[in-house]
Amino acid sequence: MVDVSQHELVPEHTILEDDVLDEVLDEYDIDRTDLPKIKRNDPALPDDAEIGDVIKIVRDSRTTDQAVIYRLVVE
Amino acid sequence: MQNSTPKDIGSINFGLMEPEEYREMSATKIITADTYDDDGFPIDMGLMDPRLGVIDPGLECKTCGKHSGSCNGHFGHIELAAPVIHVGFTKLIRRLLRGTCRECSKLLLTEDERDEFRDDITESRKLGRDLNDVTKAAIRQARKKDRCPHCGEIQYDIDHEKPTTYYEVQQVLTSEFSQRIAGAMQGDEEEGIERTTPDELAEKTEIEITRVNEILSGSFRPRESQRKAIEKALDIDLTEEDTNKLMPSDIRDWFENIPDEDIEVLGIDPDRSRPEWMILTVLPVPPVTARPSITLDNGQRSEDDLTHKLVDIIRINQRFMENREAGAPQLIIEDLWELLQYHVTTFMDNEISGTPPARHRSGRPLKTLSQRLKGKEGRFRGSLSGKRVNFSARTVISPDPTLSLNEVGVPDRVASEMTQTMLVTERNVEDARRYVANGPNSHPGANYVRRPDGRRLKVTEKNCEALAGMTEDSDAEGIQTIGPGWEVNRHLIDGDIVIFNRQPSLHRMSIMAHEVVVMPYKTFRLNTVVCPPYNADFDGDEMNMHALQNEEARAEARVLMRVQEQILSPRFGENIIGAIQDHISGTYLLTHDNPRFNETQALDLLRATRIDELPEPSGIDDEDEPFWTGHDVFSELLPDDLNLHFTGTVGEDVTIEDGQLLEGTIAEDEVGEFGGEIVDTITKEYGNTRARVFINEVSTLAMRAIMHFGFSIGIDDETIPGEAQDRIDETILDANDRVEELIDAYDAGELESLPGRTIDETLEMKIMQTLSRARDNAGNIAEEHFTEDNPAVVMAESGARGSMLNLTQMAGCVGQQAVRGERINRGYEDRTLSHYEPNDLSAEAHGFVENSYTSGLTPREFFFHAMGGREGLVDTAVRTSKSGYLQRRLINALSELETQYDGTVRDTSDTIVQFEFGEDGTSPVKVGSDEEHAVDVDGIADRIVEAEFEDDAEKAAFIGPKQETTNLSEHADSRRLPDGAEVSSDD
């Protein structure tokens, strides 16, 4: 099978460490449930991502070079 | 106590109401179905009881003592003779019946399962997911249980017959059990089933032989265990379905026993709602203010639909009670009960499938509670989200090129109806007096005044002079005259700001603010350059105007909504407002061949602009007269320091240096509506105000120019000499021959198919190619005979209107007509029209139009042309309705998203949708359209700094010493590598 996460068009997905996560949640003044969601079975996720983790996605952007997005892993 | 309407809603709770609560809030119990007595007074404890509120002016409410208008009305109640199901909850009732025990009413789940589902619900609630998914799963699991895990009772299926009947379906012993057993014991020789004797049966089922005989004779009904044994032994089914109707009272008893902890699992909050409240025992009666009766001209009263329905309910309710007290048979009671259920159901919703709607005497279906709320004309979409407003006007629009694009011409009769509130102070008291003195009928007048004590007076012809203090005896008449502290509702005058709108309002530029110019006649006037954003034309379009009623609104409209603030479209980040149609032809004529003008002509061209002195002449002609070129005249409108260089509409370079047009033709891509380069640059670099001035001046200059040269088009401009016509005919004849050749080759089977296509497709394609080439050739021949100054050519070249294709269709050949992208293939069997042989593949038989629009189409050509034309019309009709609905859904989905001050986009529950607006936090109208046209930020900064300081020394002192650029990163370095150096890039 093809591993989609290695495809060049799939941006980098990394699990956020707890302390960094707290900073992010603090910055936006939100609970983690206020984040956009991503399904656990999404093939782009790293294998060790679990429900409740927060994923950091770094996309290439035409206008800003890089755009950072956070998503909460749900079932 | 309730003398002011509450302004802030803290929270809203949704839940069920307890019957006791209905009784508590009720002003009176309703017992009679009659409304008014013979004298026309409402009957006590009737449907129009005066305690339910007042609708007649002058009367006092018996409950709150207020008058009509200030009394909101009060609910009453009807005590239902028997419980009745609430139609709105039929689905939930079914779910509860299926998920709980018929005996002990507990949820049919073990405690562990229940707790698991409860945790799921809490989790879902936190994540904002649909709770229905969890509750549905819980019910699904509960239904699987045959027996109650708590009391062991057998559970039966629940059948729901819409809308409000529930049955319990049980499997019981059929009445024909003895015959069936006997039949099975006979056996069947053909199928090879052996006979069974009663003894054998007794042995197999372990039932005593005497019992077996009794069963076989039908005198003893086998018990359940015995039935199962017999069924197993003989391989037969001895049961039949028995349906047992559940009366609303049974359901109510059932629900009363459901424990609170079990309800939570089904997503119901037991503190607020108990399931038994879904079965009504008390019916609230809406206040009379919600169902006012109308007195007709002949003095008869006409009641509201809701009142009619309530009358029905009370009548049946009474009959029910009487019958029950008289001890009527169960059958009659059940019939009446069903009737009561029907009336209460239709009282709430009269559009339930499976139930005939309750009708008015005239046959019209009654409009009951749910019909009042639902749909486009319902309370939500019709009265709350969209309501009719005051201070608005609508009329036909027409063009006026003398107006600025910021302005709108308002008919005087509209201006004297729409008013602006003017707070009278010492400084404007004279103005206010003048308005009031003019009265309500002459234009800058006033319609109402408000005294400092709050009294509002209508200004009339009679009292206007007295109010304004213009007559001596005003004091004697006791009329106060206006002064500071008063309010005057004066007519709209020039310079007021209003909101202007054309439907469909598809983007934000469909609603813009304009400044009023009061004008005679009856239409709204607008500058033609604002047609593109509104998508307006003047073939009968109407537009709406709204006069703003407070200072905040006026300020906001002026700063944010004025037309000049909307020149750049957020859709593509370029100007949507610019020169159109004749403006473009005008600038084209002015600049294309760079014509010369003498002083009078040049002044005439510029007379409607700010320019009142001509620049130095461009040169001196042979007769020693000074002249000005078109380029120089146009350059007068440009900002003095504008520099631009790009490839223009006609394909030649356009160069502007220091505000002088040096070369190039000014046409669509330069000053046009969708991304005209000069307009776009001026807007971004010099601001909206400069852009407004520029667009206004370009359009007036263009109109002067086009009038100077004269511009008209007629049929003679599209006719070509006979010699050219002959050549075109020849071309088409030639094409027809080649088509024939193709068809012959096809018939002979010599045609070779293109890769991936069948032979037929190949033939079609080749024919289409041949014919379209013929059309193009005909067009080219026709084009040769059109000169540069042909008006149609001017319009097509400049991009003002039409294209060369339109021109060639008029002069040369219309070409192939198509339906669904193919030659015309429909109509009769194997042919398009009965004029042709079957299977005729020729060009003519499939919609090729040889003629031009000027020469005229043959009847058959005309027919094919109409076929193609209709497809276009149908497509647009379908597209608009589809895109309209799509737009509605999109707007509903996105309407609550908002960009926050921290740059994130969030919805109303603070869930993040985008971490940075549009991923980059930039507004499309603030950036350049592409890399080539980036906004010259440094240039703007330099210009402003230049203007700020008188000499270089002062400037240097302010800015400070120049900093050497720091080497930020290697990454930045790599971009500045000299040519030829190897750069590896990964994008």
What is the level-2 CATH architecture name of chain A?
Answer: Alpha-Beta Complex
Secondary-structure-based class of chain B equals alpha+beta
Backbone shape of chain B: extended
Structural class of chain A: alpha+beta
Instruction: Give the DSSP E fraction of chain A (strand runs of 2 or more residues).
Output: 25-35%
State the low-pLDDT regions of chain B, or none: 970-987
Q: What helical percentage do the residues of chain B reach?
A: 25-40%
Spatial separation of the terminal alpha carbons of chain A: 23 Å
Count of runs of 4 or more consecutive helical residues of chain A: 1
Q: From the coordinates shown, what is the CATH architecture of the domain at 715-874 in chain B?
A: Orthogonal Bundle
User: Any idea of the CATH topology of chain A?
Assistant: Eukaryotic RPB6 RNA polymerase subunit
Oligomer state equals: heterodimer
The largest sheet of chain B, given as strand count, sense and whether it forms a barrel, is: 6 strands, mixed, barrel
User: Greatest chain-chain interface?
Assistant: A-B, 17 and 18 residues
Describe the structure.
The complex is a heterodimer of chains A (75) and B (987). Chain A has one helix and four strands. Chain A has one helix at 18-28, and strands at 12-15, 37-39, 54-61, 65-74. A four-stranded mixed beta sheet of chain A has the order 1-3-4-2, with no helix packed on it. The longest helix of chain A is centred in the N-terminal third of the chain and has 11 residues, at 18-28. The model of chain A has no long low-confidence stretch (mean pLDDT 87). Among the domains of chain B are: 27-74 and 286-380, RNA polymerase II, clamp domain (DNA Excision Repair, Uvrb, Chain A, Irregular), CATH 4.10.860; 391-417 and 493-566, Beta Barrel (Barwin-like endoglucanases); 419-491, Dna Ligase, domain 1; 582-709, Enzyme I, Chain A, domain 2, CATH 1.10.274; 715-874, Orthogonal Bundle (Topoisomerase I, Chain A, domain 4), CATH 1.10.132.30; 898-933, no CATH class. Chain B contains 33 helices and 30 strands. In chain B, strands 8-16-9-15-14-17 form a six-stranded mixed β-barrel. Chain B has a four-stranded antiparallel beta sheet with strand order 10-13-11-12, with helices on one face. Residues 970-987 of chain B have low confidence and may be disordered. Chain A binds chain B through residues 28, 30, 33-37, 59-61, 63-64, 67-70, 74, and chain B through 126-128, 902, 904, 909-913, 915-916, 918-922, 987.
